[in-house]
Design brief:
By secondary structure, this protein is α/β, with parallel strands linked by helices. It has 3 domains: about 210 residues, Lambda Exonuclease, Chain A; about 50 residues; about 210 residues, Nucleotidyltransferase, domain 5. It is about 40% helix and about 15% strand. It has 19 helices and 17 strands. The longest helix has 29 residues. The chain starts with 10 loop residues before the first strand and ends with a helix.
Length: about 500
């Protein structure tokens, strides 16, 4: 029998209006790995599916166990809490047990099942929410996104095909997603967090294609490692963990053309002309100011600084406030008055430089687990006062100031006044500075090492970027985190945020 082929003999478990086909209790899934997600992977790239099944060790897998956007409140758990009386098919990874338990509950007349498990022609699926209405069923795929994506329709079509093949009469297929208009009012009341999109029509149009998708995956798994299709997108619908395996780093091209910022058309024009390095390009073929500045820096082997940059920075009055925020997003809000996926500030660092060079550091970090939003805004106003430029790196802090003002109307005039004092250092550097070591990026993590190598972020422990800061914050506010670990996370978070603002000070002093 070919890899992934159907197991043939079926046993039928009957329930009211339902025939449930238990195909050898997941034997094919265990042997050959066909499921909704793996069919989607095979559609994205045949090699991705083959490697996932036969050579997973060559992939680069994330080691974190917590979804950064959920902070311990799992979207599916919250959804299930809104439907009391439903039965969760909770068998961990024992697919045979999941199939058997699903059949048993259906035969017993269960009205609502979570993670109901079905197999049809060698494909196994687990339905997030199966709702039986008389003899007919509605099936819901629960997603943490704020809308329906194309990949969700493919996913729903595969699931519909399997469930219909198992004898279920499906009244509707829905994608249930987060409604980002929802405002959390507290008391763990999440009614209104989810919105249902009936995608039955779109799924019906896709159903005739599903058998071909399944057969294509069987062919992939029956053969040797496939080549990469010419049109593969390694980032869509999911970033591929095998990209490093498929595209190993070759000999490094010095100053590659791809590092030219801001215009894909310009890069493609130069690549089509045969250029791979900025060094190869004649100066008169470049059209954009930033590209010309990069070209000059690469050919000189040194930074190019427009005189306007030091003049502008020297003119900044004192005291100067160097500011950086850290924020968190939740798919399921945990703080009253917040919405899904809002950028919510929990920490700031501020270095204050006074006339004469004296430097003072001020900071805020709340790891209590309750909403830090009001204390954050109040401490910020106290820290920044009413006069002096506020130096940030990019427009993000200005946006958070605006949103904080909207959240707290009594503080809005003062927070709006802060916005008017903001000086965006990133925009000034993009306009007037380039160092060849920056590799086409004006990220502070690229700019700072070119100016002050001793402030490289690699010298920090544990928290070295924004994603790690979010993970540390979530771990720190978790009730199960021990006090010594929470104290260590606090130190790491404070050190990381302070590095950002000390970096701003260092950059300004370097040029001014």
């Amino acid at each position: 029998m070919r890899a992934g082929a159907a197991s043939g003999k079926r046993s039928v478990v009957s329930g009211p209006g339902i025939q449930y086909n238990d195909e050898k209790k997941g034997e094919d899934m265990a042997a050959h790995g066909l499921s909704k997600s793996r069919i989607i992977e095979g559609r994205q790239c045949p090699r991705r599916l083959w490697l996932k099944v036969y050579r997973p060790e060559v992939g680069e897998w994330e080691t974190g166990t917590r979804n950064l956007l959920q902070a311990g409140l799992d979207v599916h758990e919250v959804f299930r809490g809104l439907h009391p009386g439903g039965v969760l098919i909770d068998t961990d990874d024992d697919l045979a047990a999941a199939l058997a338990e699903t059949g048993r509950h259906l035969a017993g007349g269960a009205g609502t099942l979570f993670e109901a498990t079905f197999a049809h022609q060698g494909v196994l699926v687990r339905a997030d929410f199966l709702e039986r209405r008389s003899s007919r069923c509605r099936v819901h795929e629960v997603k943490s996104s704020t809308g329906v994506k194309d990949v969700h329709l493919d996913d729903a079509a595969i699931q519909h095909w399997v469930l219909a093949g198992c004898g279920l009469d499906l009244e509707a297929t829905c994608v249930t997603h987060i409604d980002n208009r929802f405002v959390y009012q507290g008391n763990r009341d999440y009614h209104g967090l989810f919105a249902d999109a009936d995608v039955s029509g779109q799924v019906a149009a896709l159903l005739p294609e599903v058998p071909a998708w399944v057969e294509a995956c069987r062919v992939i798994l029956a053969g040797s490692e496939p080549a990469i299709p010419a049109d593969v997108d390694c980032e869509s619908p999911w970033a591929c963990p095998f990209a490093g395996y498929c595209f190993p780093a070759g000999p490094e091209v010095p100053f590659p053309i791809e590092t030219l910022p801001g215009s894909t058309a310009e890069v493609e024009r130069l690549k089509a002309a045969g250029f791979t390095s900025i060094r190869q390009v004649p100066r008169d073929l470049l059209r954009l100011g930033r590209h010309l500045r990069m070209w000059q820096a690469v050919h000189d082997g040194a930074a190019v600084v427009d005189p306007e940059l030091p003049r502008t920075l020297r003119d900044l009055p004192f005291p100067r406030f160097f500011l950086d925020f850290e924020t968190i997003q939740f798919a399921v809000p945990i703080w009253v008055g917040t919405r899904p996926y809002e950028q919510l500030p929990f920490q700031f660092s501020c270095h204050v430089e006074w006339a004469g060079g004296r430097l003072e550091h001020r900071e805020f970090l709340d790891l209590g687990g309750g909403s830090p939003l009001r204390p954050f805004a109040e401490r910020l106003l106290e820290t920044l006062g009413t006069a002096g430029p506020i130096v940030t790196y990019g427009p993000f802090e200005r946006r958070i100031l605006r949103e904080s003002g909207e959240r707290f109307p009594d503080l809005q005039p003062a927070l709006e006044a802060l916005k008017g004092r903001v000086v965006d250092l990133l925009s000034l550097l993009r306009r007037w500075y380039y160092h060849p070591a920056m590799a086409g990026s004006w990220s502070i993590k690229n700019v700072l090492p070119a100016i002050a190598p001793e402030l490289r972020y690699e010298t920090l422990q544990e928290v070295r970027d924004g994603g790690a800061a979010q993970a540390a914050f979530l771990e720190a506010i978790h009730p199960g985190t021990a006090a010594p670990r929470r104290d260590a996370l606090r130190r790491h978070l404070l050190a990381y945020c302070a590095r950002d603002t000390l970096g701003l000070v260092t950059i300004v002093r370097h040029f001014a």
